[in-house]
Design goal:
It is built from 9 helices and 12 strands. It has 316 residues and is an alpha+beta fold. It folds into 3 domains: 60 residues; 123 residues, no CATH class; 93 residues, TATA-Binding Protein. Helix 1 crosses helix 2, helix 2 packs antiparallel against helix 3 and helix 7 crosses helix 8. It starts with 14 loop residues before the first helix and ends in a 10-residue tail after the last helix.
C-alpha cells in the first residue's frame, strides 16, 4: 500500500462499499486460484523442461489461500518438489519413485518398489534465508540431498547415504541389487538436473568420475588407521601398496579398480582424500563400500576420521 493511501475501515463504508469490497476480495482470491491451476496444468502436462522447472519454482512458493477464499484441499509447498522430481524422471523414462498420498491429507511422499513401505521419502522445505529443500527419508530422518531450484544447486550427503543404505538397509538384509536400483534413480535425477538445466551438482560419495577426490572428515589422518587397512587387506588376500601420490596407500580390488588414500595437500596443511579409479569410470566409493566387505568394515569402524565430507554450507 502506498504511503499516501489510507486504510479502509469497513465499518465506515456504505452498504454498496462493503459489498463491493467483499466482491473484489472474492474476485482476487478466485483469480489467484486460477493462476495456481494454470501453473498446475504446466507442472502436470508440459514436456518442456524449463517450463516444468519454472512451474515447480513458483508453486513451491505459492500461497493459495487469501483473506476471502480458502481451499480446503491443497498440497503443501514441499509436495511440488516431489511432483517435479517424479515428472522429470518420468520424462527420462525412470518412474521408480511411486508418488503416494498420506491418508486423511493431501500431502505426498515417495516409496520405491525395491524397498519396503517402511521407508518413505518426502521433501522438507528450508524455512530460512537459504531456501531450498531436503529430500528426506521419514523413518530415519536422513537428508539424502539438498536442492535449490532457483539457484540450480544439488548436493548429495555422504553421511545420510551411509546411515540409510548401509547401516539401516544393507547390514539388515536388504540386497545390493535393491539398493543399487534406488541409488540409480537418485543419481539419474542428479544427471537430469545437470544435463537439462545446468544445475551445479555435487554427487559426493556417489561420484564415479576418476578425477573425483573424496575429502575425508579428518584432515590429518592417524597413521594407525591406514595401518589397519594394511592388516585387513592381507587377511583378505589383497596387497596394499604405498600410494603413488605420496604419503598414503593404494589397493587394487580387481583388475583396473584402484582405491587410493593419500594426503593431497600442496601447501603443507594435511588434506587426506580417497580416489577410486576404474577404466569405465563406473565405480564410486559408495559402490566399493557396497561390494567389498572388508573395505566397508574398515570405513565404518573408523567413520569419525574416514567419513567423506559433504558440502558444509548445507549439511552441518
Amino acid at each position: 500500500m502506498a504511503n499516501n493511501e489510507k486504510h479502509v475501515d469497513s465499518a465506515t463504508l456504505s452498504t454498496h462499499g462493503k459489498l463491493t469490497m467483499f466482491n473484489e476480495g472474492l474476485k482476487s482470491g478466485l483469480a489467484n486460484g486460477e493462476k495456481f491451476t494454470a501453473l498446475m496444468d504446466q507442472l502436470i502436462e508440459t514436456t518442456d523442461g524449463e517450463v516444468l522447472l519454472t512451474a515447480a519454482q513458483k508453486l513451491a512458493d505459492f500461497k493459495l489461500d487469501s483473506a476471502y477464499v480458502t481451499f480446503p484441499h491443497q498440497y503443501q509447498n514441499a509436495d511440488y518438489y516431489l511432483i517435479f522430481m517424479s515428472r522429470l524422471l518420468g520424462m527420462h523414462h525412470d518412474e521408480k519413485p511411486i508418488l503416494n498420498s498420506q491418508r486423511q491429507s493431501e500431502s505426498l511422499y515417495h516409496v520405491y518398489e525395491d524397498l519396503t513401505d517402511d521407508y518413505t521419502f518426502l521433501y522438507q522445505v528450508v524455512n530460512n534465508a537459504n531456501g531450498g529443500a531436503y529430500y528426506r527419508e521419514q523413518t530415519t530422518g536422513e537428508n539424502l540431498f539438498y536442492i535449490h531450484l532457483e539457484r540450480r544447486l544439488l548436493r548429495f550427503n555422504s553421511e545420510a547415504f551411509t546411515n540409510l543404505f548401509i547401516n539401516k538397509l544393507l547390514l539388515k538384509g536388504t540386497g545390493v541389487d535393491q539398493i543399487n536400483a534406488v541409488l540409480a534413480t537418485l543419481i539419474k535425477f542428479g544427471h537430469c538436473l545437470r544435463d537439462d538445466f545446468g544445475f551445479n551438482v555435487d554427487f559426493n560419495i556417489l561420484d564415479v568420475d576418476n578425477a573425483a577426490k573424496y575429502e575425508l572428515r579428518a584432515g590429518n589422518l592417524d597413521a594407525a588407521i591406514v595401518d589397519k587397512l594394511f592388516v585387513s587387506s592381507a587377511q583378505h588376500d589383497y596387497m596394499l601398496r604405498n600410494s603413488k601420490h605420496g604419503h598414503g596407500a593404494q589397493i587394487e580390488l580387481r583388475a583396473g579398480l584402484l582405491v587410493d588414500i593419500f594426503n593431497s595437500a600442496s601447501d603443507g596443511s594435511p588434506k587426506w582424500v580417497l580416489t577410486v579409479h576404474d577404466p569405465k569410470q563406473a565405480v564410486s566409493w559408495f559402490d566399493v563400500l557396497l561390494h567389498f566387505d572388508f573395505m566397508r568394515d574398515w570405513y565404518l569402524d573408523n567413520i569419525e576420521s574416514l567419513e567423506i565430507k559433504a558440502d558444509p554450507l548445507v549439511f552441518a
